[in-house]
Amino acid sequence: MSAPTKNAKLLAWVAEIEKMCTPDQVVWCNGSTEEYDSLMAEMVASGMAIKLNEQKRPNSFAFNSDPSDVARVENRTYIASVKKEDAGPTNNWIDPAELKKTMTELYKGCMKGRTMYVIPFSMGPIGSPISKNAIEITDSPYVVCNMHIMTRVSTKVLELIDATDEFIPCLHSVGAPLEPGQKDARWPCAPIEKKYIAHFTDENLIWSFGSGYGGNALLGKKCLALRIASNMARHEGWMAEHMLILRFTNPQGKKFHIAAAFPSACGKTNLAMLQSTVPGWKVETIGDDIAWMKPGADGRLYAINPEAGFFGVAPGTAEYSNPMALASCAKDTIFTNVVVTEDKDVWWEDMGVECAGGTDWKNNPWTPDMKDADGKKIKGAHPNSRFTARAANCPVICEDWENPAGVPIDIFVFGGRRTTTMPLVHEAFDFNQGVYMGATAASEPTAAALDVKQSLRFDPFAMTPFIGYHAGDYMQHWFDMGETLGNKAPRCFYVNWFRKDENGKWLWPGFGDNSRVLKWMCDRVEGKVEARETPIGLMPIDGDLTLDGLNIPAEDWAELMKVDVTLFKKTLEDAKEYLGKFGDKLPAKMTEQMAALEARLG
Ligand code: GTP
Ligand code: SPV
Ligand code: MN
Question: What is the pTM of this model?
Fold first, then answer.
């Protein structure tokens, strides 16, 4: 196949990779429907993909991964900056020259027996000044199809690359060469000790080897749009954040734009598509995972969603919890590691419907009553099973979701999964305290990363696994952005939907009812309600956060609103210890915030 570009830099890079990886053939992708359909047809024929019931789930497919390859692997993810101090204490660092040597050995001949696909894609609307043009080279047709949904794949990107002579190179291989006649695995990948997700941050280069799953393999997402982009953003004066973006419109038609950072599997997709239970208020989705934000000509902060689809957590997605996510994956969707039912539809735990049985994520026959040797229910879907759905198929997608100018952000929300300590909502006294709140956000682990097992981890701005440089410099960048934005900076809030009582019952209904909390935030921004001062920040005066129609016992509400000074003192001590690792890169403003909090806690 002749290359659809004459750009010398791009051709040289592709030739170099071809020489190293020795695929059987090279295919340049164009993002067309025909390309998607023919790759899917090939994967169905080879047994890698299952075509779902066309009546129930049109144009949709299911995949099962290898049981070892089900999520991001943070201890195989590297920031290979030239200077070690640029990676900082939250990243794994390897010397770039050494890592290139190791990985080159692995890449040598790794695409034997396979096709090498060259995918031109844009993060952000094609041609927008905030967008980035990139090329992913991969030997996985599954990755190509997912990239079709998650990014803008188009030959127009090649024209832009030719015009600017600039692109971000992303190399991916599943790391499983095929000998002549060797039968391929259903889900080829390499063993854990050969997996590398590498970022050469001084040259904006991504090399990924050995995994075919999610953020390890769809390199536009966490690798480019967060780790590489956060680095670029720092130098260029903008922000790349692990945030959903939504528009919340009040009954008078006034629009508020909210960007919220929660760690993986802590509720971004759910909040982004929330069905408001506050009469007259409505949510529209702009993005569900990543926000790129730049100050605009009017001095406000404008956000775009660089992605084109949702790579959403399947379990828990139900009509009662997230009907708009369910509707988004009614058609044109790729499902990974869910149950395929007997009538070739999909199912997962907490989908809100019964399932008679089918094939589980490990590709074994499965019924919902199956138990393991310890008598525990065998899950049909993996806890980190995902749907890849087009944003355009979301019924509440905002008309401005592809507006290259972005939307002006009024409110930042930080949070995490905390069964104790953190109240439902509190507001920062000012932007700098907001930065402190975001920087000391903590969460209990989820299934979105394979190897994160400690009971509580600090996860600044939900970015711990995604900051492409020193986390202390990253916190300073937040303070600097606050200074640039001045009184136009978004107002900052902290939420926790995940409080439980001593019997393990949720104290807050969550999901659609989170709109009640968002409305209180908007009322605060508009100056419609006062707030009461507590040592940790500003909190709702009883009655201002509407609980109409909810049956929350008074003692549960008191618990949700409680500021336990003893617990917060403990959290502050933990934060001090955590931030101690940042050494002299810890911004002075963080130290000031800690001292001020300590004084307020008494
Ligand atoms: P990533 O895609 O990994 O970045 O995750 P995410 O932040 O988009 O999380 P998502 O919205 O997919 O939610 C993850 C899990 O949290 C699902 O099982 C949800 O059902 C659950 N969840 C989301 N919002 C709420 C809530 O308000 N209350 C409760 N109890 N659970 C929630
Ligand atoms: C996350 O883990 O935050 C995700 C899924 O959004 S992945 O694309 O695998 O990073
Ligand atoms: Mn995410």
Answer: 0.97
